[in-house]
């Protein structure tokens, strides 16, 4: 059955094409009438299994205490379940918003009757704007997306889910069998349609995902289908819902300060060169050395470098834990500027490359800039052949697991905002303490926050002092374990 040909849909489309446009279009008026009639009985037809899945997926993206705007909020169950510090729900139906106010009288929630295309709120920008099954009923999706722009700040995420057209016949059959309330789904949009409309409205797509193979609550079968099989690349196209996360790129102040964290172990011969070649940034900058259990005099050399170069803002710390990840966390906790940057002390990435990383971040082109050693040719002996093969394999694996293309997972040079890092730390318990490298702690956290991850190519140079700290086989097994963590926490969630 074609859902477009239901009696409700035919009546709506006749009115849409025949009546003159008032303040609300005939299409919007018909939609409002339909949902006004549907509001009192919505709770009876609300499929719990499907909506419980939607709520869980939105909770993954939206932490409690965020500010949230929902377009097409219905009777407010999803918005209330996200526990926002400030939640605003907008719906075209006055009866829906009336029901929402009765069910959710909390002071932090407010419900307004408006058309999303003519959005007019006396509100500050929100952390998250969600559109759950809303695009199917929108009169003008492009106008709807454009209306969201005044309510976005630099880190606002727009999250929308919508039906896959593949399920159109089955949903129509469920309506015939009275297992689903007949609804006038007028827009069957493809992911490419939505991505294009977002781009036309001035947004950038961060990630696209597919979820839900079994919308019903069936013990054992539902979790198997939705958590395991829905994550398999060959089966994902069969999922019921598409999910898109988008952002509005906005430049940051060019004069933001930069904190460069340099974790060093047995690197005494490189410290003086790092200091000598420390680049100038547009704003103020500091260099933070974190020494970790060296067997040579790296700590003493760092201290001398700080004393001998008073024109530079250099600080030195000695970590009490183990591993680069612990050293980076210590350095970030001591950083005093908003942009935080990691530089490996082995000098395989030139310090002169660092301003380019920062420029990409400040221009708003990326929110997490990840160095990539696998674009330009490398110096001889810069990377062993097996290491190169391993890096290429894990790049493919993690691109799938993170939902964003990434070419090099283990390049130490990474840049992000300290405020984003603090949000990442606040949500670290989701993954747990699993990463001795520090790279995956940041990458996984950035992916969960919905940050735009971008590769920045560098020329990878051979070491001139010391030996690599990487053990190919032992650390390769650790990387496989990281894949398992990402698969379970990011894909099979």
Structure description:
- It is a single chain.
- The chain is elongated and about 75 Å long.
- It is α/β, with parallel strands linked by helices.
- The protein has helices at 7-18, 26-38, 42-45, 48-61, 77-81, 94-103, 141-147, 168-176, 191-200, 221-228, 268-276, 298-308, 324-334, 354-362, 385-402, 418-426, 439-449, 472-491; strands spanning 67-71, 86-91, 109-113, 126-132, 152-163, 204-211, 241-247, 258-264, 285-291, 314-318, 339-342, 368-372, 414-417, 453-457.
- Helix 1 (7-18) runs antiparallel to helix 2 (26-38), helix 7 (141-147) crosses helix 9 (191-200) and helix 11 runs parallel beside helix 12.
- It has 18 helices and 14 strands.
- The two termini are 33 Å apart.
- Helices cover 39% and strands 18% of the residues.
- The chain has 2 domains: 3-247, Vaccinia Virus protein VP39 (Rossmann fold), CATH 3.40.50.150; 258-491, Alpha-Beta Complex (Spore Coat Polysaccharide Biosynthesis Protein SpsA, Chain A), CATH 3.90.550.10.
- A 7-stranded mixed beta sheet has the order 3-2-1-4-5-7-6, sandwiched between helices.
- The model is unreliable at 1-22 (pLDDT under 50).
- Helix 6 (94-103) links the parallel strand 2 and strand 3 (109-113).
């Amino acid at each position: 059955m074609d859902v477009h040909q239901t009696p409700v849909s035919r009546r709506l489309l006749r009115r849409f094409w025949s009546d003159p446009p008032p303040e609300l279009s005939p299409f919007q008026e018909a939609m409002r009438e339909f949902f006004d009639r549907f509001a009192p009985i919505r709770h009876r037809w609300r499929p719990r299994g499907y909506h419980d899945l939607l709520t869980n997926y939105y909770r993954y993206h939206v932490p409690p205490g965020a500010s949230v705007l929902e377009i097409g909020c219905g009777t407010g169950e999803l918005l209330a379940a996200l526990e926002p510090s400030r939640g605003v729900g907008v719906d075209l139906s006055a009866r829906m918003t009336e029901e929402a106010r009765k069910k959710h009288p909390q002071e932090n929630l407010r419900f307004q009757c408006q058309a999303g295309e003519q959005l007019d709120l006396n509100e500050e920008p929100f952390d998250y704007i969600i559109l759950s099954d809303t695009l199917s009923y929108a009169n003008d999706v492009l106008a709807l997306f454009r209306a969201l722009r005044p309510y976005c700040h630099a880190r606002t995420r727009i999250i929308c889910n919508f039906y896959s057209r593949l399920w159109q016949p089955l949903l129509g059959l469920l309506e015939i069998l009275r297992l689903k309330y007949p609804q006038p789904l007028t827009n069957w949009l493809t992911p490419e349609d939505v991505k294009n409309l977002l781009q036309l409205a001035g947004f950038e797509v961060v990630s696209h995902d597919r979820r839900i193979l079994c919308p019903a609550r069936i013990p054992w079968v539902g979790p198997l289908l939705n958590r395991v099989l829905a994550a398999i690349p060959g089966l994902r196209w069969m999922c019921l819902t598409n999910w898109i996360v988008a952002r509005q790129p906005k430049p940051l102040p060019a004069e933001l300060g930069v904190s460069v964290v340099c974790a060093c172990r047995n690197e005494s011969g490189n410290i003086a060169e790092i200091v000598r070649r420390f680049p100038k940034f547009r704003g103020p900058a500091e260099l933070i050395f974190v020494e970790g259990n060296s067997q040579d005099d790296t700590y003493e050399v760092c201290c001398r470098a700080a004393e001998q170069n008073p024109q530079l803002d250099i600080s030195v710390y000695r970590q009490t834990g183990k591993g680069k990840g612990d050293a980076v966390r210590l350095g970030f906790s001591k950083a005093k500027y908003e942009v935080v940057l990691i530089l490996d002390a082995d000098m395989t990435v030139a310090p002169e490359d660092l301003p380019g990383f920062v420029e990409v971040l400040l221009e708003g082109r990326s929110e997490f800039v990840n160095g990539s050693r696998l674009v330009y040719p490398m110096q001889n002996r810069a990377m062993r052949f097996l290491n190169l093969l391993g890096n290429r394999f894990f790049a493919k694996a993690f691109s799938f697991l993170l939902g964003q293309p990434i070419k090099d997972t283990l390049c130490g040079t990474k840049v992000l905002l300290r405020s984003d890092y603090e949000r990442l730390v606040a949500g670290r318990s989701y993954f747990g303490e699993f990463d001795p490298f520090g790279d995956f702690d940041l990458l996984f956290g950035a992916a969960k926050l919905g940050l735009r991850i971008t590769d920045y190519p560098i020329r990878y140079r051979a070491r001139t002092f010391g030996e690599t700290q990487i053990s190919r086989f032992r650390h390769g097994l650790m990387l496989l374990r990281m894949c398992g963590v990402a698969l379970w926490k990011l894909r099979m969630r």
